[in-house]
Each structure stands twice: as structure tokens, then as C-alpha cells.
Design brief:
Strand 5 (117-121), helix 6 and strand 6 form a beta-alpha-beta unit. The chain has 3 domains: 2-198, NAD(P)-binding Rossmann-like Domain (Rossmann fold, 3-Layer(aba) Sandwich), CATH 3.40.50; 209-285, NAD(P)-binding Rossmann-like Domain (Rossmann fold, 3-Layer(aba) Sandwich), CATH 3.40.50; 293-430, Rossmann fold. By secondary structure, it is an alpha/beta fold. 45% of the residues lie in helices and 13% in strands. The protein binds nicotinamide-adenine-dinucleotide. Nicotinamide-adenine-dinucleotide (NAD) is lined by residues 6-12, 29-32, 35, 83-86, 98, 101-102, 123-124, 154, 156-158.
């Protein structure tokens, strides 16, 4: 394809160079003369392994031009990739001035020339930015079908940017409605088969990735501080932690849904935090993890209260599916709070047989939900018949049955991420979606 790249910094220079290697013809646009001169001479404007060689080759083959003239670049290109900076404002917020300026400039050129263009925003921008730029700059061009606007987050890392561009760890493409772009040729520019999201979804994905990476570093460093304090080699501890690719380094525990609970995570986290406090160690991430979980449990309660329904059913009471362990269960906490607020409850959990509860599990049930025996139903239909609102934390009923029983006046609150529930013919809502 014929491609223009606006902004020739770390992202733009690598993008331009790698696209020439893939056989595309590229024009780079920047406002800094030194960067333009470097590219015109086949040199890299930044220090990045492998980039000099790629740019020299592109220069030799005549595949890469560089200019400060936006109109000339657009005259040459079918797809335009925007990689200008989005720095922080003094307030900590995001400065979209460079992106807005480039978008305005591009819109003016395309309006004047009538040329069509696929526009791909790659600068990191907060959810909602692409949609507001679309309205601000490209509304009439989009209506005329002259512009297709996409948001494709960039995941390269400086220092291995060329390798990361060629073999991205993740590829995602945001479109206005989350469906495939009209012109599928553009997908090939970014390595073939990116996951499709809406503009906002793709924007959030980039921030979710970076926050996740930052949290991993902070977490490893908190374990590190603890280790050093205990005269342990935390590098070795974390190395062994990383050997577990089933639970630790995996997609486990990364799905939005219920607050965490059970007899281990809350207890062990609070023991570690207590030890940190006793020893004078700052462990703010671990402390915040507990606070975040409490905030999530509060959100769950608020969603139930906001529904205005007084008769509530709970499907799944134990702390997770496949066990009768009630200790630390977020659903037990919800039940306690709803009973205290005067709601009428019915509960179904196929794993739960009160006569078979023993020890700490039975004691916790007695302490927190002494009336549980009178609330338990032996099947889900009894719960549905009684309830205006059904809170589903486990799949303890077949979808087909739920479909038959659910009436339009029912409210369903999905806490587990059961996507089929969205098709039920009643009011339904998810805890995080
Ligand atoms: N650097 C990274 O590792 C990385 C990785 C992924 C995503 N990102 C995101 O990509 C975007 C770009 O990052 P970067 O590190 O390449 O930024 P950068 O500051 O290195 O480069 C931005 C370039 O845009 C140019 N520019 C500014 N206004 C322009 C205009 N009107 N017309 C043409 N060019 C203009 C600047 O002169 C500069 O060369 C940011 O949103 C960043 O958050 C960066």
C-alpha cells in the first residue's frame, strides 16, 4: 500500500521503517527538520536497534520519503497512520493537542482534494478520544464515505521496537461499531488478524495493558521489599513464582466478575499487610488490593439496591463453583447485607448441603447466615418464582431452563460473566459490563 506516517518519533519511525520492509511505499511527516533530514538520508532519528539498517535499506530502494508537507504526503497515500505524541498535561491529564492538530490538518486537505483515506490513529488516547475527534474533524468526510477512521493501539517497547512491530505481542483494531473495517487491506499493515473492538474498547485495551504492566512491576517490587526485609533473595522467589504458568503467568484471575473471596486470598493478603505494617514496610499495592475488592463488593450491593427489587434470589452462594465452602464468600456478604436491609431472600446452590457442613465452614455459616436453612431452595425454579431480582454468581442452572422460567418483569444481575444471559427476555445487567 501507499502509506503516510504522521509523527516520526519512536513509534512513527519504527512503523515507517518496518512498513517499507513489508513492501509498502511510505511518506513520513514530521514538524522537526532534524528528523526529516535523518530520514531523507536513510538514517534513524532515534536510537533503536535495527532501525538504522532498515532505514538505510528503505532509502536505497526509494521506498521512504520524508516531508513536512501534509498535503503532499496525503496526495501520495491510501492509508495514513497517526503516531504523534500524547504527552501528560501539568494536571496529569492527557494532552491531545498534537493529535487534534494533525487531524484538523488532514481533514482540511481531504476536504479540499476530495481524496479518500483510511486513517489509523495509533497514539495512545483515553477512551472516547477517537469518537470525539471523529465528530470534531471527520464527521462530513465519514458521511461521504471518504474517510474510514480506525484506532489501532501500539504495543511496541523501546529497545526491541523493530522486533515487537514485526511480531506484535498483541494486535487489536478499533472501529466505530466493533465490526470489521470496510477496507480489509488495512489489516495487513498491522500483521494480519487483529482482534476487533470498538474505538473505545481498543483505547481502553492499551491503558489496561500499560496499567497491568506497571502493576506487575510494582507487585514484584513489593515482594522484593518484603524479601529483603526478611533476608530472602526475592529474585529467586519471583523466578519460581513465574514457573507456574497455570495460575500465576496465565489468563487465570484476569476476568472481570465477582469480588475475590474464599478462605485463602483475603486471609493471606491481610496477614501479609499486617506483617508489613508491623515491620514498618510500605506495601500500598497489597493494601489497595483489599480496598479495591471491598469497593467491588460495595458496587455489587449498590447494583442490587438500585434495582429497587425487594425480593432477591441468589444462584450460587459458595465462594466459587464446584465447592460448598462458604468461608469468605462475597455472596454470603451480599446476603448478610440484603437481609440486614430488610430484603426477602431465596438461595439455590447445588453444592450446598447444610447437614454436611462441618468445622470452620459450618461455624462461619452459623455466625453470618444463621437463617440460611430457611432461605435455601432445592432448585433454581423456586428461587425464580419468588424473586424480582436474580443475582447469578454461578452457573447452577441450565440456560434453557432459565430461558423458560425468566419472565419479562424479572431483573437479572450477572456476577460471573455468563454472556448468554444477555439474550434473556428480561431486564439484565452485568456487574462489570
Ligand atoms: N514510545 C513508546 O514506546 C510507545 C509505545 C506505544 C505507544 N506509544 C504512544 O505512541 C504515541 C507516540 O509516541 P512516541 O514515543 O513515538 O512520541 P515522540 O514524542 O517520540 O514522537 C512524536 C512525534 O510527533 C511529531 N509531531 C508533533 N506534531 C506533529 C504534527 N503536527 N505533524 C507531524 N508530526 C508531528 C513530533 O515532532 C515527534 O517527532 C504516543 O501517544 C505514545 O503514548 C509510545
Amino acid at each position: 500500500m501507499k502509506v503516510s506516517v504522521f509523527g516520526l518519533g519512536y513509534v512513527g519511525a519504527v512503523t515507517a521503517a518496518c512498513m517499507t520492509r513489508a513492501g509498502h511505499e511510505v511518506v513520513g511527516v514530521d514538524v522537526q527538520p532534524a528528523k526529516l533530514q535523518a530520514l531523507q538520508q536513510g538514517r534513524s532519528p532515534i536510537v533503536e536497534p535495527g532501525l538504522d539498517a532498515l532505514l538505510a535499506q528503505a532509502h536505497q530502494q526509494g521506498r521512504l520519503q520524508a516531508t513536512d508537507d501534509a498535503a503532499a504526503a496525503l496526495a501520495h497515500s491510501e492509508a495514513c497512520i497517526i503516531c504523534v505524541g500524547t504527552p501528560s498535561l501539568a494536571s496529569g491529564g492527557l494532552n491531545l493537542d498534537f493529535v487534534r492538530k494533525v487531524c484538523t490538518q488532514i481533514a482540511e486537505v481531504l476536504s479540499a482534494t476530495g481524496k479518500s483515506q483510511i486513517l489509523v490513529l495509533r497514539s495512545t488516547m483515553l477512551p472516547g478520544s477517537t469518537r470525539s475527534l471523529a465528530a470534531e474533524c471527520f464527521a462530513s468526510l465519514q458521511q461521504r464515505g471518504q474517510v474510514e477512521l480506525l484506532f489501532a493501539p501500539e504495543f511496541l517497547r523501546e529497545g526491541s521496537a523493530v522486533a515487537d512491530f514485526e511480531q506484535p505481542s498483541l494486535a487489536a483494531m478499533g472501529t466505530a461499531d466493533g465490526t470489521a473495517p470496510r477496507n480489509s487491506a488495512v489489516l495487513a499493515l498491522f500483521g494480519g488478524q487483529p482482534s476487533l473492538l470498538t474505538w473505545e474498547g481498543a483505547e481502553l485495551l492499551k491503558y489496561a495493558c500499560n496499567s497491568w504492566h506497571a502493576m506487575k512491576v510494582a507487585f514484584a517490587n513489593e515482594v522484593g521489599r518484603l524479601g529483603k526485609h526478611l533476608q530472602l533473595d526475592s529474585r529467586k522467589v519471583m523466578e519460581v513464582l513465574c514457573q507456574d504458568s497455570r495460575l500465576n503467568i496465565s489468563s487465570h484471575y484476569l476476568r472481570p466478575g465477582a469480588p475475590f473471596g474464599g478462605s485463602c486470598l483475603p486471609k493471606d493478603l491481610s496477614a501479609l499487610i499486617a506483617m508489613g505494617r508491623r515491620e514498618g514496610l510500605a506495601l500500598p499495592l497489597l493494601e489497595a488490593t483489599t480496598q479495591s475488592n471491598q469497593a467491588h463488593a460495595q458496587t455489587l450491593l449498590r447494583l442490587v439496591l438500585r434495582s429497587g427489587c425487594r425480593r432477591v434470589g441468589i444462584l450460587g452462594l459458595s465462594f466459587k463453583a464446584g465447592t460448598d465452602d462458604l468461608r469468605g464468600s462475597p455472596m454470603v456478604e451480599l446476603a448478610e447485607q440484603l437481609l440486614a436491609a430488610g430484603h426477602e431472600l431465596r438461595i439455590h446452590d447445588p453444592q450446598l448441603h447444610l447437614a454436611q457442613l462441618h468445622g470452620a465452614n459450618a461455624a462461619e455459616m452459623q455466625r453470618r447466615l444463621p437463617r440460611l436453612a430457611g432461605l435455601l431452595c432445592s432448585n433454581a425454579q423456586q428461587v425464580l418464582d419468588h424473586s424480582e431480582l436474580l443475582v447469578i454468581s454461578q452457573r447452577c442452572v441450565e440456560y434453557a431452563q432459565l430461558q423458560t422460567w425468566a419472565q419479562p418483569q424479572h431483573h437479572v444481575l450477572d456476577v460471573m460473566g455468563w454472556s448468554q444471559l444477555q439474550e434473556l427476555n428480561c431486564h439484565q445487567e452485568g456487574i462489570c459490563w
